Amino acid sequence: MEKSEKQAAAQQAVDILHEISTLLNCQLDRRTLSICISMIENGVKPEALAEVVQKLREEGRVLMADIEALAAKPNAARRK
Amino acid sequence: MASRQQDHRAQKISSAIDSLITHLIPENPYEDDHTAELRHDDYASAIKALLDQPSSSSYDADVNNASDLIKRKLIQGNPTQALRFSHLYTRLLSLPVLNQKWAILYFLYQLSDSPDPNEPLPLSPLAQQQQPHFDQQFQPQIQAQTPPPQLLRQPQQSAWAAEPRSPAYEEVQNEEVMEDAPSLEGSHNVPPERPRHGRDRGHTLTQSHQAGPASRDDNREVVHDPSEPALLRDLPFTLQGLSSATLPFLNDTTLKLPPTLPIPIISLLNTLAEPSLLYRGLNEFTKTPANGLLGQSLRAAISKELRSYLTLVATLETQIRRALSELDESAPRGGIGKTGVTLKRCVVWTREATMGLRLMSLIAEESKNKHGGQLITLIHSFSSSHGDPVVAAFAERLLVDVTRPFYDILRRWIYDGELLDPHMEFFVREQNPHDEERKDAKAKGQMSVWNSKYEIIDRMIPSIITENFSQKVFLIGKSLNFIRHNCGDHRWVEDYSKKASRELKYGDTATLEAWIDEAHKETMSHLMHLLNDQFRVFDHLEALKRYILLGQGDFIALLMESLAPNLDRPAGAQYRHTLTAQLEHAIRGSNAQYDDPEITNRLDARMLQLSHGDIGWDCFTLEYKIDAPVDVVVTEWGNRQYLKVFNFLWRIKRVEFALASTWRKCMTGARGVLQTSDGKVLQTWKSTRGVLAEMVHFVGQLQYYILFEVIESSWTELQKNIHKENCTLDDLITAHTKYLTSITHKGLLGAKRRQFPSSTADGSTAPSSTDDDRNSYMVQLSELLRTMLAYRDSVDGLYSWSVSDFTRRQGGLISSHHTRPTSTRDRADSQAASLADSMDLDPPYDSFDSTPGGEAGGVKSEFPALQDRLRQLGANFKTRLQILLGDLAYQPDVDMRFLGVSMNFNDVYQPVRRKGKSSTTAGAAASGGASGTGGQGQAGQGQAAKA
């Protein structure tokens, strides 16, 4: 009983925070947000975490670009 | 226990890191599992390293006010979002689950305004330039790790990969990367303004990087003296018109700018100097004494606007103070570019205020020689015809305050009928009795309390009020004033003002007009009601028509009959008491006795003052007394017109009466004393009767024309006009004036161009030639009437002669039978008889035979002279009549032409047409006639005097 209540509260917290993040244009989806919240709750420094998220995003984007580039190039298949 | 918990936590964190990586880093389908795992591990370790860093000091100070930071940021971007955030924040605080709320918020804050992750990475040259310096050392390694195509992207990729290996270096760089990010994004994704604002206030560290492209150039700018901060510091004082160290005012209209400044700054300061100088000027203006209430209200309105300008300056000052306090001395140009307050910005902020000040000083300047309504017109012209909506709106606002005293005056005027205008600012004004024009009008007797107390000044009518409207306003006030002061109805006016009084204000013109219309209607109807019921204007008008315009026939006939013997005497022998007694008698004896005593009491008979030698007929007049409120309708001028018409009609009536009595005498005499066998005498009598009949016809036609064609038809017109719905007093006065004018005009009184000083200046003095031209009808008619009277005198003479002849013949008959001496007695008898016969006529004609009677030759000698005279007078009458008919035939007025036709219905007369006004023949004829009758008239007078 208590657990479900807590879960509901957590859910609500995530909702609110997600809304704030939308207000702030943070471009975080709910999953990322909840991961980050749990990390911060576990003592991770927010500043560092923000940095990490940004780095990871950048990396992801670079990777995506690469993937797309590879997909576009026919010789990509040869490497495999 | 603690360590286990820590382990647990570390485990949790690392699993979270794993999921984060998998969530954020897309899977590369071209990589084999091993590389992917390697990479994953790489990331994980890098993240761990990052997370384990000692916290930088920068956020420690801020952690507790993360929400404040967010709020401030949102306020700058969008205030409604800030509001929404505060709601969310309170809700978040009430939740029990999270322990690190501030940290989460701070985290979000750090991440705010991230680029959309779905968007492809911009191929920014800047980004490539930015990082090579620390990429180079790692390049080989990365080349080995990453597939060849990635070489293209090397810099970014390797930077990330390199980081874990050089933590110390990275710390510095990291900061830079992070802080640079927004600035880069700024140039691509979001308007440049936003990130700058966002960071300015909150994060001092970032300032140097976020100034935006514009501020980069600032570095090149020469630092000038005095510096911009110094100028900014002094600016509020300057804007308030106070001298300061850098910007001193030399005098009221000069501001000295420091000569050391570069031209752009000078031009900015020039722009800023405008409101300062205008403010100074206007401030001076508001202190000058005003010449009138509107002037005062204008000053008040201006100082109100100045106060709001000062509020603006105060706000500006606060901004400047804050900006200066946040100033970073080390930044280029004193960091002024980032504070958000610069001279340029001040110029923009004060621009609208400058417009207002400019307009006000224009108004202030022009108002100096404008007064009252003109002032309103001036401001209104800005609000109604200025193309710039800002100016129009400003003038409109000003107008509300400025017009307040005007509307106060207006209110007093239309609701109380009082003119409360000590400075002559209203468009209604009390008339100055010493004016030249006034004197002229007064001389004409057209003045009355109604139209000469107040006047409307056209140039003072403000343009917010239309012409028609102002007339209405004028009429309302005038009527109220009139009701109060002249009709003595205070109570109604007070009740009315209590009931109807409303606050009038500039703005809704339609409502205002409705109110004024209402007031107009009510006032007018009450005024007409008062005049009609209490002062009986209509009854008076009718009485005037009945008595003065001879409408009541029986009364006039009786009056004339009873007065005739009296009036035959010279003017000096007329006594007022006899006249009034006869008047009373006439009233009693006629239907006038049934009239209201209120009206008959006003009738008065009196003598006009005339020159010596006139007989009573010439100076008798009937008067109808008009008193206070009604005299606005029947003015002095109107009274004079009535008098004139009365005198004219009275004279015609008199001639008619005289002719009628002579005619009667002739008719009765024809059966007795006038019978004779002398053919010559018979012939003379015949022609005399013919001429007499002509005259009776003429007088009859004339009277009919004037009484019926002129007076009655004008009266019908008047009735129609004054019984119209919503007829005002002005309408009544106009209608009455029109009525009188049409009577005098059509009634051949010739009052077209000129009014007679007195209508009775007719008979005794020979008319001058100019009068002859102007009032030809009047002169002609009076000549005609005089001829008729002279003719009648002659007829009476002829009658007397006939009687004496008859007596002589009888006497002769007797003397032949009896003795001679009896003839004297007989003659005396016959004289007595003739006297008795002509008792109510002019002096008996026996003066002619003043020679001792009995001599037939003496008596006989009278006859040719009489015959001659009668012929001459008859011819004279005919000539004059023909001239008159000639004039009438070419009259523009149909009624007057018709008079000519009815007089000459069987073409007995040949109308003589006069060729133009100053034609010599006509003049000769007229003057010849005039001189002829003049002589006759004198002869007649001589006879009268002898009698």
UniProtKB/TrEMBL annotation, chain A:
Alphabetically ordered keywords of this record: Cytoplasm, Cytoskeleton
Gene Ontology BP terms: gamma-tubulin complex localization; microtubule nucleation by interphase microtubule organizing center; mitotic spindle assembly
Organism expressing this protein natively: Sordaria brevicollis
Function text: Required for gamma-tubulin complex recruitment to the microtubule organizing center (MTOC).
InterPro entries: MZT1 (IPR022214)
Protein name: Mitotic-spindle organizing protein 1
Family according to the record: Belongs to the MOZART1 family.
GO cellular component, as recorded: gamma-tubulin ring complex; interphase microtubule organizing center; mitotic spindle pole body; spindle
Subcellular location: Cytoplasm, Cytoskeleton, Microtubule organizing center, Spindle pole body
Assembly: Part of the gamma-tubulin complex.
From TrEMBL, chain B:
Subcellular compartments: Cytoplasm, Cytoskeleton
Skewed-composition ranges (Low complexity): 124-138, 147-157, 918-928
UniProt entry keywords in alphabetical sequence: Cytoplasm, Cytoskeleton, Microtubule
The UniProt record lists the keyword Cytoplasm: yes
Region (Disordered): 119-138, 147-223, 754-774, 813-858, 915-947
Pfam families in alphabetical order: GCP_C_terminal, GCP_N_terminal
Gene Ontology terms describing biological process: cytoplasmic microtubule organization; meiotic cell cycle; microtubule nucleation; mitotic cell cycle; spindle assembly
Chief location of this protein within or outside the cell: cytoplasm
Compositional bias ranges of the Gly residues kind: 929-940
Biased composition (Polar residues): 756-769
Leader sequence segment: none
Any one Gene Ontology cellular component term annotated for this protein: microtubule
Domain of life: Eukaryota
Coiled coil feature spans: none
Annotated ranges, domain Gamma tubulin complex component protein N-terminal: 232-532
Single GO MF descriptor: gamma-tubulin binding
Domain Gamma tubulin complex component C-terminal per the UniProt entry, residue ranges: 538-909
Similarity comment text for this entry: Belongs to the TUBGCP family.
UniProt name for this protein: Spc98 family-domain-containing protein
Source organism: Sordaria brevicollis
